[in-house]
Every structure is written in structure tokens, then in C-alpha cells.
Design goal:
Distance between the termini: 128 Å
Number of strands: 0
Strand content: under 5%
Shape: elongated
Order of helices and strands: HHHHHHHHH
């Protein structure tokens, strides 16, 4: 009886075998190796992944997100951004919000030499606009408010720096005028 059920299962779901044969196992192996390098201990079996190709693709996307997060935390911001952009391109519906969130964090990261609060804010705003049901929507909203405040404070700092430079220039000009007056006084006293 078990043999008959097994044969029927194979006959009913022939695409399962087709997916298993046609699925690119090299992508799975690469992700497994990357996961091992990152210290992952619970790596799905390649055979299991090949039986569920949609899950396997999403799992690979999640691995790419994890790798991008590790790159960001280790200071490799441009590589991290590339990885997140790839995930956003390949998995816009299922992992796009998470990729955008990491991109926003990356652009705002204090260790990023190319830090850009405006780009960071745009990433978080896209989450609010394009992913209204996202679990991280509230966090993105908080980041938008925080970054708006940072942008305004930076604008104020730049304005104050410009005013300071203008005042320093005026002081230098007044010193030159004062030196000129002192020289004229000395000349008058000597004559």
C-alpha cells in the first residue's frame, strides 16, 4: 500500500522532480558556503531547498541581506550597498523593505565616509510609501523623523559656519584697517 501511495505521489507531482533536476544547485552551494563562512549553523539541506525553489530563492535573498549587514557593520559600506541593491532588485516584494532599511542605515552610518542623510531618508520614505504592511514600517517612520532633524541641524550648522567665516573675514579686514591707522599715528608722531 505504501508503494502505491508513493507511486501516486510521484505521478501526481511530476513537477517536483523536474524542479529538483532543473534547479541550479551551484547557487545553493554558494549560499551554503557563504553561510558557513558567516558562522551559520542551521543551513537548510541543498536537497530540501531544491524541492522548494521559491523558498530556496527567498532563503538566498535572506542570506544576501545577512551578508550585506555584516559588511556594513565591518565598514564595507559600498559592498553592503551593492548587496542590498541586488536584493531589492531580485526580491522587491518579499525582501525589498528589509533591503531598503539596511540601505537607509548604511547611508546614515557614522563610519560611512560617503554618509548621506538625504539618501538615507529617501530609503526609509520608500518603505513608508511602497510597503504599508511592513513590520519595519514604524521603525522607518522614526528614522525619517530623526533624519529630517539631522538634515535641519546640519543646515543650521552650515549657516552658522558661513556666518562665522564672514565675521572672521570682517575681523581680518578691521585688523588691516587698525594696522593702517596705527602706522599713520606713528608717522604723525615722528613728524
Amino acid at each position: 500500500m505504501l508503494i502505491v501511495i508513493g507511486i501516486q505521489g510521484c505521478a501526481i507531482f511530476p513537477e517536483k522532480h523536474q524542479d529538483k533536476d532543473s534547479y541550479n544547485n551551484s547557487e545553493i552551494s554558494m549560499s551554503v558556503e557563504e553561510s558557513k563562512a558567516m558562522g551559520e549553523s542551521s543551513i537548510p539541506d541543498a536537497e530540501l531547498l531544491s524541492m522548494f525553489p521559491q523558498f530556496a530563492r527567498k532563503w538566498q535573498g535572506m542570506q544576501k541581506l545577512a551578508k550585506a549587514r555584516v559588511l556594513m557593520l565591518n565598514g564595507y559600506h559600498s559592498s553592503s550597498l551593492r548587496g542590498n541593491k541586488e536584493v531589492l532588485r531580485l526580491f522587491p516584494r518579499s525582501l525589498g523593505d528589509q533591503a531598503l532599511f539596511q540601505m537607509g542605515l548604511n547611508y546614515a552610518h557614522s563610519g560611512n565616509p560617503d554618509r548621506n542623510y538625504k539618501k538615507s531618508k529617501k530609503c526609509f520614505q520608500r518603505i513608508l510609501k511602497e510597503y504599508p504592511d511592513s513590520d519595519i514600517r514604524d521603525k522607518a517612520g522614526i528614522w525619517v523623523l530623526f533624519l529630517q532633524e539631522m538634515i535641519e541641524k546640519n543646515r543650521e550648522i552650515n549657516n552658522l559656519q558661513n556666518q562665522l567665516e564672514g565675521l572672521q573675514y570682517q575681523i581680518e579686514r578691521l585688523k588691516e584697517v587698525d594696522l593702517g591707522i596705527e602706522e599713520k599715528k606713528r608717522e604723525l608722531l615722528l613728524n
